[in-house]
Structure formats: structure tokens, C-alpha cells
Write a structure and sequence with these properties.
The chain is of the alpha+beta class and 86 residues long. It contains 1 helix and 3 strands, in the order βββα. The radius of gyration is 16 Å and the shape is extended.
Length: 86
């Protein structure tokens, strides 16, 4: 489930969640049944890109897509009165 609960995210020395900017992502279908996801990101705002390539089952790809859509909907909502921006 999407939301503010991030207990398994890496925390940096500054005490904040470590996040890397997304450069691009690509998808592919392999052997007619494996969903491939290639994510290119940067460790810093500028500099070389790093790549992560994942193999997902159709069920995993669908679950990931649903979670991302749910998170996007939450991110687009205005913050509740009195809440701190994240």
C-alpha cells in the first residue's frame, strides 16, 4: 500500500530517506512471458547514470503498476491542512 510508511527504505547519514532521480525507464517482453523493466537513474542530480534491470512475472508487473498509480494519485492530492510537506 502506498503512503508515508517507509520502514524498509535506506536512510542516509543525514537521517532522510535516500532517493535517486529517475532518468528514464524502458520495458520489454522476453520469451513471451517475462516482463523486463530497465530503470536508469543517477546517484546525484548530475553525473553518470546507473542501471537496474528487473525480470517480473505478469502478476508482479501488474501489482507494481497498481502501486505506482495509487502513489501518483496520493502525490497529486493537496496536502491536508496543518500537515508538513514531505
Amino acid at each position: 500500500m502506498a503512503g508515508e510508511d517507509v520502514p524498509n527504505f535506506d536512510i542516509g547519514a543525514d537521517g532522510f530517506v535516500t532517493l535517486h532521480p529517475l532518468v528514464t525507464c524502458r520495458t520489454g517482453l522476453f520469451a513471451g512471458m517475462t516482463c523486463g523493466l530497465r530503470i536508469e537513474y543517477r546517484q546525484e542530480q548530475t553525473g553518470p547514470t546507473d542501471t537496474l534491470q528487473l525480470a517480473l512475472t505478469p502478476e508482479q508487473a501488474r501489482a507494481l503498476a497498481e502501486l505506482l498509480v495509487e502513489l501518483a494519485v496520493l502525490a497529486e492530492q493537496p496536502p491536508a491542512p496543518g500537515s508538513q510537506p514531505s
